[in-house]
User: What shape does this take?
Amino acid sequence: MSKFLKIFAPAAGGAAGVLTMAYVLADQFVVDIPSIAPALVSQASAASTDAADSATDETQAAATETPEGGFGLGREALPEEIAAWDVDVRPGGIGLPEGRGDVATGEEVFAEACAVCHGDFAEGVGNWPVLAGGFDTLDDKDPVKTVGSYWPYLSTVWDYVHRSMPFGNAQSLSPDEVYAITAYILYSNYLVEDDFELSHENFAEFEMPNADGFIVDDRPENEYTIWRTEPCMEGCKDSVEITMRASVVDVTPEEEGAEEEAAAEPAAEEAAEEVKMAAADPEPVETTTTDADEGAGPDPELVAAGEKVFRKCKACHMVGEAAKNRVGPVLNGVMGATIGGHDDFKYSSVFQEAAEAGRVWDEAAMAEFLAAPKSYMKGTKMSFAGLKKDEDIDAIIAYLQSFGD
Assistant: This one.
């Protein structure tokens, strides 16, 4: 026998013996799980589920069985809330609020609130809708559908302006202003004279040129006939059963909110730690007053006010990270920049001349321009009439200053 076998054979046999003994001993020291344990676990789980279901049923039953019979859902709307939503202006002037406005007043309001998109004479700016003209074009291949040529009811004009205009600042107009704007739109379509006054009293007397241009499609295959029956408004079912209730209504789900709060906490702690470290710095720092320090940033309250006023500009201009040119150029970094100096925008000639002359948008220049754009930059294509209030001008300037390049 070789020397290798003399050494390997005893070693292999010893290793096999050790492994065998280890397996036997390990099996002896394991305690068997009683057969009753799975049943106990199953019973406990079922009991927990039954308890949760019972609690849910009790909660839902308690909420359903209310003295008022309202099923515990919501609350009765307040009269003020109903009035705020109850905007229902119909053909013939039904539902109109009291008020009046003439063409002259409407021209002023239209120039301030509407002309930036629709033009001073309702002719439309760029791709924004034309509100006047288009008569005798409805049979054309490309008809011009305006208030004058197409709309059948004047009530639609009043309701739409009151409900949705001006763009970006909806429902900011008073009833009198809406009457005045509506009168001016009629005047722009040569439907009334320049001394015309529209009010809730004479509204129903006015008939639009295309009032007879629409017909009801009452063919049997269409759904019109389905809605001709009287709808059920009360007690339409014998019984009402609530099958499910939301635990959180009208808010971001709690799980997402918790994750956001958890993510925000470390950031807040880090910020607080940085503040503490800065406060604990014993080294004196020499401070000097510079123009940059004095104008470190605009007043936050003024910026917030400017954001609201800027709604009048949003139809044509954008600011912020995702801003891009629209009818007007992006206004990021406009304060302190060269007038007409945005490389990616095609300015009118008056702005190009200002850029060549090196004129700059400082606060004084911007304030004068915002007050009267057409007077300050004669020949500008911008149809905005300007801001009448100094505080609005200051707020807009502060808001623009908050957006760098």
Summary: Confidence is low (pLDDT under 50) at residues 33-41, 59-67, 256-262, 284-294. Strands lie at 100-102, 197-199. The domain at 298-401 is CATH 1.10.760.10 (Cytochrome Bc1 Complex; Chain D, domain 2).
